[in-house]
Amino acid sequence: MHFYIKPKKKEEVLSTLKALGESFLKDIEDGKNPSVEIPVRTLRNVKFDAKERKIFLGGYVSKRYLLHLGQIRNFTQLAGVASLSKNLIEENKHISLREAFYILKRNIPGLHKNIVDEQEESNKAIEDLELVINALREQLHINANKLGAVAGNVVIRDRGDLIDWSKLGSGGWSVPSNVEDIEFVKVNAKFILYIEKSAVWERLHEDKVWKKLNCIIVASQGQATRGIRRLLQRLSYEHGLPIYVLTDLDPWGIYIYSVIKFGSIALAHISDRLAIPSAKFLGLTVDDVKKYGLEKHLIKFKEIDMKRLEQIREYEWFKNNKEWQRQFDLMKEMETKAELEALSARGITFISEKYLPEKIKSGEFLD
């Protein structure tokens, strides 16, 4: 049983931010050194729950102090992000990660030093704040760029507007960074298909696969954004829809699947709100290469591909999976990879009319 943790409401996030600031102020008034505990985000503190089939953050924490030469800058950056987020929530405004960087790139009074000099610093401070108050970045009203498209027989309400995913032309619905407040008015689908590549999504959308197979098709360009992963999880948990992941046959495509299913190492602290342990792999396999005659269209591995393959096969969630290890062995033996677009050699609509219907009907999924 996979537990679905509902995110905090806006009022809860705001209250938590205020409490954090008040705790800093009280420490100062009491003559104490203000501090905050932050879980350590390193590989040694990332664990895998075999029962829940999710990556999670372990119990190691670091304490950060205001009055410490080596920590004052990071502490100030965290406090700056917390203050910014509080104001955004109160004003009901949203900004991008880039805008957050420019807002925080200002002098600390009396020190002639910027709170942040590079966007990597503000991004890290935002992620630290997520950990401290146990809330998603999007709930702090700080969003990433939109990168993704959706089509299907679904109607949603987004900021008061009714949007029908089946009637948005060739572009589909552009998935926002923050999908927490979206209301699903109607969901008529049997499953969700996440596609690694936007070009392949366009092929399936033009062929009306979502209509013929009664599904929802979702795509990003490469790794799924947090907004897309959260959208997939909400549809899966709130509406009981299976998730099938369609990627290339290469280590990078398999990693995309791994992140959607188990969570990512970098975002282990929010796996409960992003990972989908029930997701299945519907992408190209070594067996598909032979079955569909794709041998002529294989691409030789580069050294970086082989290195990535060796890394992935050692992940704890793949290490004891016999079928995945078999795929890894065969990929290593072939020293080649295959792209989804290679299926077009069998016909422009082959992926829509043959490949997907056949694999779904026969249940040829990797778990």
What features would you describe in this structure?
There is one protein chain. This protein has 13 helices and 19 strands. The model has no long low-confidence stretch (mean pLDDT 91). Strands 12-9-15-14-16-17 form a 6-stranded mixed sheet. Strands 11-10-13 form a 3-stranded antiparallel sheet, with no helix packed on it. It is globular. It folds into 2 domains: 10-143, Winged helix-like DNA-binding domain superfamily/Winged helix DNA-binding domain (Arc Repressor Mutant, subunit A); 149-362, Dna Topoisomerase Vi A Subunit, Chain: A, domain 2. It starts with 9 loop residues before the first helix and ends in a 5-residue tail after the last helix. With 367 residues, it is of the alpha/beta class.
CATH class of the largest domain: Alpha Beta
Strand adjacency order, main sheet: 12-9-15-14-16-17
Strand content: 15-25%
CATH topology of the largest domain: Dna Topoisomerase Vi A Subunit, Chain: A, domain 2
Q: Name the helicity range.
A: 40-55%
* DSSP summary: helix tally: 13
Mean pLDDT: 91
Class by alpha and beta content: alpha/beta
- How many E strands? 19
User: What is the terminal separation in angstroms?
Assistant: 16 Å
Task: State the major sheet.
Answer: 6 strands, mixed
| Oligomeric composition of the shown chains | single chain
CATH architecture title of the largest domain: 3-Layer(aba) Sandwich
Low-confidence stretches: none
The geometry reads as globular
**How many structural domains are formed by the residues?**
2
Q: Radius of gyration, rounded?
A: 23 Å
